[in-house]
Amino acid sequence: MNDQLRSLKQLHGAKLGATDGEIGHVRDVYFDDRTWAVRYLVADTGNWLPGRQVLLAPPALADWDETGGVLNVNLSRRQIEKSPAMAEHLPLSRQYEEDYYRYYGWPSYWQGEGVWDAGTFPVVGQPPTAAGTARNRPEAHLRSTAAVTGYQVRGVDGTQGQISDFLLAAEEWTLASLVIRIGHRFSGAEVILPTGAVERISYEDSTVYVSLTMAAIGLCPPRHGAPPLPRTLELLHQVADL
Predict the structure, then answer these.
(1) Same-domain check for residues 134 and 188
(2) Which residues touch 55 (CB under 8 Å, ≥6 apart)?
(3) Shared domain check, 170 and 134
(4) Which domain does 176 fall in, by range?
(5) Which long-range contacts (CB under 8 A, 24 or more apart) does 104-108 make?
(6) Do 125 and 16 share a structural domain?
(7) Are residue 60 and residue 75 in the same domain, yes or no?
(8) Low-confidence residues of the chain: pLDDT under 50
(9) How many independent structural domains does the chain possess?
(10) Residues 6-63 pLDDT 10s
(11) What is the model's pTM?
């Protein structure tokens, strides 16, 4: 995938191709609600592995074939089939993640202080200050983008819209922005809100709390008809400073 912001809606339903054949399609995306890093894609394997939930971490993901609509995975079908099985729903236990990363031989993303460990693809943030073990870090704050889509967005002075999509920084595998629908749920305009403006996500209230006023949210760049990417990023930084 190239260096640009991508809609997660483009990924949902995309075919997944292992090194030796198709393995299904993307059903969901799990992200860390503190760092906004994408930790796993959830694969719907159909009749191939019925009853199994298959997770694909960013180190397993290769190039995106836009022509064929396929996200290629640098693992074989057998590797995926033999990977540790997990429960059907979140939360994931840290023990499961330890087993998962050990099985594939990848450095653990939680060993360090950055978004990703220095030995793991992709490399984002600062290199780790110490190695440590998984139990030196708190349990992962993994959330489902499918579940969070539709949550209300509440500014410092009131509610302003709902989440309709996420924009992915493809090279870093982090969620750079939320797409907020303002006004009517079906006909309202969509604006791009930087994830850095999010203070917390309340799963009990189905609400995302942000540090901006309702007026500032309304000044965010439009999702459609937005200026070129460099100017859009500049506007996002300006809004974040309001």
Answers:
(1) no
(2) 30, 40, 41, 42, 43, 83, 86, 100
(3) no
(4) 149-240
(5) 104/57, 104/59, 104/60, 104/75, 104/79, 106/57, 106/59, 108/134
(6) yes
(7) yes
(8) 1-3, 118-120, 123-138, 227-230
(9) 2
(10) 899 888 889 999 999 999 999 999 999 989 999 999 999 988 998 888 999 999 998 8
(11) 0.81
